[in-house]
Write a structure and sequence with these properties.
eight-stranded mixed beta sheet; mainly beta; 2,3-Dihydroxybiphenyl 1,2-Dioxygenase, domain 1; about 140 residues; 2 domains
Length: about 140
Amino acid sequence: MATEFYHLMVRVLDLEKSMAFYEMLGFREDRRTVSEKGRFTNVHMRAEGDDRDTLELTYNWDGDEGLPSDSRHFGHIAILVDDIYEMCQTAMDRGITINRPPRDGHMAFFRSPDNISIELLQKGDALPPKEPWASMESTGHW
């Protein structure tokens, strides 16, 4: 099954300071998402010469006192897949717990052997919901 690296997300304490740091490294803001409901801002940056966003800075408005000591600054690795249901089934067949099932046919999370959160995203449009995924509960955290 074909996969494609999508982006790397890191949580930041000071959005402007972090953006300035990554700009120093040659990244530029490409787009920004502000979520009033979720109380966060995501800034997607791309490296000069790259044709897509590869770095997502996530700033939680209410702070994150655990940063950086609890390693929550590193959020997840996102990977685009051709068939999210097939990839999740393959992972489960190998004994991997699906922490956030692809109930929406679009997004799922599980963890690497090193406890790194992996986000799977369906390429293109979301697949129609189907079982067992549609009714599967989340487990643990991602």
